[in-house]
Amino acid sequence: MSYLILISHGQFAEGLKDALGMFIGDDIKTVKAIGLQSGESTDQFQNRFKALLSEVGKGAELFVLGDIIGGSPLTTAIDVLNQENLLESAVVLGGMNFPMALNTAILKDNATKEELITNVLREGATALKQFEITRETEDDDEI
User: Fold this and answer.
1) Distance in Å from the first CA to the final CA of the chain
2) Helix, strand, or coil here: 81?
3) Average pLDDT estimate for 75-87
4) Which of 11, 121, 142, 143 has its CA 20 to 30 A from that of 128?
5) H helices within the chain, ranges in order?
6) Which residues contact 22 (CB under 8 A, 6 or more apart)?
7) Left (φ > 0), alpha (ψ -120 to 50) or beta: where does 72 sit?
8) Per-residue confidence (pLDDT) for residue 10, from 0 to 100
9) pTM for this one?
10) pLDDT at 140
11) Number of domains comprising the chain
12) What is the rounded average pLDDT of the residues 24-45?
């Protein structure tokens, strides 16, 4: 079975998981979320991440999205994945946003790792846009 693990500072990962549930329904069972809480040590976070990994079980395919590459939550999780000999088989991406999480949740069971990485990174980047108001001209109203 494959799992999507969302990792963040604070409650971001849990909130993102909640929003994903509105789009992926029962597949939310294969999404896990964990965040380094304010005042929590990295050792405490590491223990909670180890417990989360024990929930998914050995042999699970892991797709990990973190909020910031180089941030304490993701680097701690990577350390644990490495200790558990899971890092080489896991896909780890940073800069997590909703389109990345949604695409990973949808593609993780049906695409190759390479296809998933390409599509998820493209969708995450494509979603970054400035909202602009466009005004209709008077000619548009006459049609």
Assistant:
1) 54
2) helix
3) 97
4) 11
5) 12-24, 42-56, 72-83, 98-107, 113-126, 138-141
6) none
7) alpha
8) 98
9) 0.91
10) 55
11) 1
12) 96
